[in-house]
Amino acid sequence: xxxxxxxxxxxxxxxxxxxxxxxxxxxxxxxxxxxxxxxxxxxxxxxxxxxxxxxxxxxxxxxxxxxxxxxxxxxxxxxxxxxxxxxxxxxxxxxxxxxxxxxxxxxxxxxxxxxxxxxxxxxxxxxxxxxxxxxxxxxxxxxxxxxxxxxxxxxxxxxxxxxxxxxxxxxxxxxxxxxxxxxxxxxxxxxxxxxxxxxxxxxxxxxxxxxxxxxxxxxxxxxxxxxxx
Length: 229
Prior knowledge:
This protein has 229 residues and is mainly β. It folds into two domains: 9-140, YaeB-like (Elongation Factor Tu (Ef-tu), domain 3, Beta Barrel), CATH 2.40.30; 158-228, YaeB-like fold (2-Layer Sandwich), CATH 3.30.2310.10. Helices cover 10% and strands 31% of the residues. It is built from three helices and twelve strands, in the order E-E-E-E-E-E-E-E-H-E-H-H-E-E-E. A six-stranded antiparallel barrel has the order 1-2-7-6-3-8. Strands 9-12-11-10 form a four-stranded mixed sheet. Strands 4-5 form a two-stranded antiparallel ribbon. A hairpin with a 2-residue loop joins strand 10 (203-207) and strand 11 (210-216). Pfam families: TrmO_C (PF18389), TrmO_N (PF01980). Residues 5-144 form the TsaA-like domain. Keywords: S-adenosyl-L-methionine.
């Protein structure tokens, strides 16, 4: 038996590429996303009462992942070498490419259709959203829950900006007031592959329309430049 899903909207985010996207929601609180609902789901009555909730679940499609599922995967939290079952992970290589993300609801705008402003997003720009549900803390916040191999927050890097990067950031901030916070939050999570250990290698991530060059010695991410694409 098969089922079909329709996108109710597409999420606009700062992450133009998969590289640099936070590995979990809420790790980059200044990662803002905008979800504009598509017809016929863009009716104001469809979100009536949603603004009373602080957080929502997004059900989405891993639209850029391989369509071939894998029975075991190598989570970054285990160094990229140890394998666990796909159902013991949040890997995109699933039988059905469905994902679930908990984000903060900033604003509900129903003046022209329906637009939701969200924060703490961990999805690439253009991700298809198939459902939105309110987060209910009285049943979904479990203090005694066990987190398996991801029981604690990952360690973070210090983030330093070169003089060139600081100058470019100041020039960019009038149009992107949270760019500095977002940049530091993203790089603090160390988006490098688990096997990367060359302190001289220069990496690049894209946030909005900025190409950000940086390198890392395993303790500190050094931002070299922020060039406009």
